Each structure stands twice: as C-alpha cells, then as structure tokens.
Amino acid sequence: MDLELSPRHLEFRDECRSWLAANKPARPLRSMDTAAGFEEHREWERVLFDGGWSVPGWPASYGGRDCDLIEWLIYEEEYWLSGAPGRVSANGVSLLAPTIFNFGTQAQQDHFLPKMASGEHIWAQGWSEPGAGSDLAAIATRAIRDGDHYVLNGQKTWCSRGAFADWIFCIVRTDPEAERHAGLTYLLVPADAPGLERRPIGRLDGEPGFAELFFDDCRVRVDNVLGEEGQGWAVAMAAAGSERGLNLRSPGRFMAAAERLTELVRTLRAEQREIDPRRRDEVTDAWIRAQAYRWQTYATAARLMDGAELGSEASLMKVFWSELDLELHATALRLLGDRGELAAGAPDAVDGGRWLDGYVFALSGPIYAGTNEIQRNIIAERVLGLPRR
After folding, report:
1. Which helix (H) or strand (E) holds 354?
2. Cα 253 to Cα 243: distance, rounded to the nearest angstrom
3. Are both 295 and 334 inside the same structural domain?
4. In what helix (H) or strand (E) does residue 51 lie, and over which residues does it extend?
5. CB–CB of 87/45 below 8 Å?
6. N or C: less crowded end of the chain, CB within 10 Å?
7. CA dihedral defined by 78, 84, 85, 88, rounded to 10 degrees?
8. In the predicted model, is pLDDT for residue 242 greater than 80?
C-alpha cells in the first residue's frame, strides 16, 4: 500500500478542510439525546447535505460525491479533527444505508436514501430485546402477515436514538415455527406507526439516549421489508459488518481524541503540573494505537477497493477500536486526577467535561455492536479457524 496521498486526495482533503472550517457551528450544539439538541443536530445534517458533505461516499444521485473509500476516510479524519458535531444520522447513513444499497429495491433506495442524507429522516436501531442482545437469533418480536401489512407484537430495548427518531430498522420474527436464524425478517418501521409506543430510557446523566419500543398490533406495510421475508439474518449480518468495521467508527474519531490527549498534556505542562512518567507512556501508547488503527483501516480499504470482502475481520476491528476508545479516555482521566471527575458545566472542568462524558460513553463500546466476548469467539472460530470447545 502506498502511504502517500495522491495529489487528487490532497486536493480533496484541502477542500473538505476549508469547507468545515467555514461552515461548522460556531458553538457546541446541545446534546443530541435531548429534544432540542436532536433538532439542532438535524439542522446541521441539512447544512452538510446542502454543502455536499453529508454522505460523500454515496452516488451523486443520492446527494453524495461518488468518493472512493480512501477519500471517505480522509473526509472522516478532517471531520473529526475539525471539532464538528457528532452525527445524529449515524445509524442511518453508516449502518442502514449500506444495507439498503445491497438489499433494497430501487423504489426503497429512491424513497429512503435522499431523506436519510438530508436529515429529514433520522433512524434508530431496533434490534435488541430483553431476551436477545448479542444473540440476535433469539429475537422474539413477531410480525404476522395480514394482507398488505405485518402486524407486530413484542418489545425492543436499548434502541439507539429511539426517543426522537423518525424511523426504526428492526429485526422481527415472521415465522414463529422456524428455529433460531431462520424465520427472521428485516423491517423498516415508521416511528409514528399506530400500535407503537416509545418509552425513553434515561442514562446516568438523565438524558434519554435510548428507548424501549412496545409493539401492540402495530401495522407496518409489507413493502417496508428490506430484502425478502425470512432473509433477515443475512441482512442483519451485513449491517453488523458495517457497525463493527469501517463505517461506524472510522479512525478519524480516535485520531482526534489522541490529538486532544496530547494537547491535554501540553496544557498540564503549561500549568506546571507534575506528570507521572507512567502517564506519559500511556499517552504515547494511545497515540501510537490510534495511528496503527488508521493505517490498518487504510490497508483494509485498499483491499476492499481491489474486490476483497471484509467478512469476520470486522470483529477484529470492533474489538480494537472499542478498547482503544476506552483507553484514550481513561488515560485522560488519570492525567486529570480529581478534575477528571468534573462534569460539563462545573467551573473547573477541563475541556468542558468532554473527557468524562467520552469515558462514560466509551464504557459501552465493548458491549454494543455485539459484546467483545462474542467478537473474540468469532475471531477465534472464523478468522483463526480454532475449534469450538
């Protein structure tokens, strides 16, 4: 792999960097896990879309720029390094969209993708259930066909963006007699569908980052099936690869955190605070790991552009980025000592309390997108070829 960016890529990087510098919000947006903040982030999605920077890797016909994977990775780096807001549309543009491109009908692509790119439709993920988390084959929510509709009954939980989203992509069981992976169907559900009740779930900070969904004879049109009836497991595994691999957690996110970490060291030195040598080693290690993830991802992108498939190697990426994210933030809190416990709004909070907020969120990384214990099993069996015990 050539580690030098081509003149074309450098020109693309400079264009992206200039646009973000000129257009990113002048002040931090409120949390997207509040009603007001959610709408502020939706407005930002529209600004990105109007500027042609919402989905640069998509075809131009759907609002993209026809960028290749290398250009997309460059864009992600510039986006996160610029300090632009988090993407409230991530569930849609990063997880659902690749699945719609692969499995959706032309009518579904034409209807859903432009609204997703512009922020008109924000999507929530409705997979987990009280009895089915990492084990998606245990999905129990039923969808029984009744003419041109499915009638849904059951419950989803830990629905990301579920409190305020416009649509939800769900896995449901359309054949109750089928075992495990069989009989599952991937269904796109409008959040205002009759018979669907949403109950926000408050986090430790009190914000409703998730929601429970209750389906009580909820009717959803049959043409909202993504793929075919009974094909839900295959569709879900394709989406899970996007969630664990390149799409949801690009290296730019962690490179930006590593840069902030080194800036924190400079700030503490300017304040003439003594820094334990062990902490300096931890900062160095975290920065190196962020760079290693960057180059590994570029190498993976180059292979994919040559026709390779990601497959189960996505689990390797998921374990690495989730543990890297946690360590980056834990290192910052160890550097800050007592001040690391100050939440946003506290008078002496460093960097607006972002390190503590980021750490609390990073704690969930080894759990969502399939627990790291499950990912290590996948790596052992499907990547390394080790036998089951």
Report:
1. helix 354-362
2. 14
3. yes
4. helix 35-51
5. yes
6. C
7. -40
8. no
Question: Which amino acids are annotated catalytic?
Answer: 243
Q: Are 160 and 210 in contact (CB under 8 A)?
A: yes
Q: What is the pLDDT of residue 245?
A: 53
Pairwise CA distance, residues 249 & 95, whole Å: 11
Which structure tokens are listed for 297?
Answer: 């991802």
Among 52, 42, 19, 185, residue whose Cα is nearest residue 116: 42
| Count of structural domains, the chain | 3
Tokens at 130, concatenated:
């009280």
pLDDT tier at 207, thresholds 50, 70, 90? confident
The residue behind tokens 């050539």 is 2
3-state DSSP assignment of residue 295? helix
Co-location of 280 and 351 in the same domain: yes
Side-chain-side CA neighbours of 337 within 13 Å: the count stands at 7
Q: Tell me the whole-structure pTM to 2 decimals.
A: 0.87
pLDDT in tens, 155-205: 999 898 999 999 999 999 998 887 777 899 999 999 999 999 999 997 777
pLDDT of residue 344: 72
Predicted local distance difference test score (pLDDT) of residue 157: 93
Give the other-Cβ count within 10 Å of 242's Cβ. 20
Are residues 255 and 379 located together in one domain of the fold? Answer: yes
- Give the number of other Cβ atoms within 10 Å of residue 184's Cβ: 26
Domain that holds residue 183: 124-230
Q: Hey, CA dihedral for 272, 273, 279, 285, is it positive or negative?
A: negative
Going from the C-alpha of 362 to that of each of 76, 92, 152, 217, 366, the distances in angstroms are 19, 21, 33, 36, 8
Rounded Cα–Cα distance for residues 247 and 249 (Å): 6
**Domain boundary, last residue among 39, 66, 88:** 88
